[in-house]
């Protein structure tokens, strides 16, 4: 009987491990979400300091970085500077840029940086209410294979910043549609431009789980009072939050970066 009981426990543990739920010995992934204000330190008008942004990233030793407000060859950033590529060079991470809009002779949007090779990159335009003057926004997707041969979809976005929430809600609903079609677990991060209790976040929570419940504020950098930058994931049972931390870096950008460590 003792042998049969031990055998039963072994099979049960094996089944739980194979289900994909993180265990105490699970691998860990460090995810950084950072709105970089096109590498312009708010206290230094007109200055572009990509090295300062890279230093913030390098100090946290992330595996994945979701970056918003990225310039690629714009006039204000020096015409020749591809900020996504340069961040990749200075951090040693693979970089992929997703254009949001044409801007100042170049492009402006979001980027994903990753320790692991990025594949299956996709740019999904997000909707706007035609009655508003909202700026076009996108969802950027890429696939990575993590240690343990776990395939994950990385998703980055920067939702509309207008005071009225109409566009953010439309965009959140579209993101939910897209992520429900993903066959791999997803980590979605970005500047959502809305609060944890907003309708925007409630829509997103139909498919993703935030890494924080009482989320520390991320903006403004001096005396921050609002959380609008988030890391989320799905399905809930494929990840476990080890740490959610807002980095008190107040010089390089007008947002505080968010670092989340996940077990998977």
TrEMBL record:
A GO term for molecular function: endonuclease activity
One Pfam family linked to the record: Exo_endo_phos
GO biological process: GPI anchor biosynthetic process
InterPro entries: Endo/exonu/phosph_ase_sf, Endo/exonuclease/phosphatase, GPI-anchor_lipid_remodeler
PROSITE patterns in the record: PROKAR_LIPOPROTEIN
Signal peptide from the UniProt entry: none
Keyword Nuclease applies: yes
Keyword annotations: Endonuclease, Hydrolase, Nuclease
Annotated GO CC locations: membrane
Domain Endonuclease/exonuclease/phosphatase: 34-255
PANTHER family: CALCOFLUOR WHITE HYPERSENSITIVE PROTEIN PRECURSOR, ENDONUCLEASE_EXONUCLEASE_PHOSPHATASE DOMAIN-CONTAINING PROTEIN
Protein name as annotated: Endonuclease
């Amino acid at each position: 009987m003792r042998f049969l009981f031990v055998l039963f426990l072994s099979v049960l543990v094996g089944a739980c491990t194979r289900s994909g739920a993180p265990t105490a010995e699970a691998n860990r992934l460090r995810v950084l979400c950072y709105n970089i204000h096109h590498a312009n330190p708010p206290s230094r008008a007109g200055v572009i300091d990509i090295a300062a942004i890279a230093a913030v990233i390098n100090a946290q030793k992330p595996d994945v970085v979701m970056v918003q407000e990225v310039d690629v060859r714009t006039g204000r950033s020096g015409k020749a500077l591809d900020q996504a590529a340069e961040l990749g060079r200075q951090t040693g991470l693979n970089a992929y840029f997703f254009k949001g809009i044409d801007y100042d002779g170049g492009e402006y949007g979001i980027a994903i940086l990753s320790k692991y090779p990025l594949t299956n990159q996709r740019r999904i335009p997000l909707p706007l209410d035609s009655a508003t003057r909202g700026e076009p926004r996108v969802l950027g997707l890429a696939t990575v294979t993590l240690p343990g041969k776990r395939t994950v979809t990385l998703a980055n976005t920067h939702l509309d910043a207008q005071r009225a929430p109409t566009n953010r809600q439309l965009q959140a609903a579209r993101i939910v549609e897209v992520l429900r079609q993903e066959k791999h677990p997803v980590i979605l991060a970005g500047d959502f431009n809305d609060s944890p209790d907003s309708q925007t976040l409630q829509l997103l929570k139909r498919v993703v789980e935030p890494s924080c419940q009482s989320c520390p504020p991320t903006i403004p950098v001096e005396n921050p009072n609002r959380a609008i930058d988030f890391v989320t994931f799905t399905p809930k049972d494929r990840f476990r939050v080890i740490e959610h931390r807002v980095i008190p870096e107040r010089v390089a950008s007008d947002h505080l970066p968010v670092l989340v460590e996940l077990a998977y």
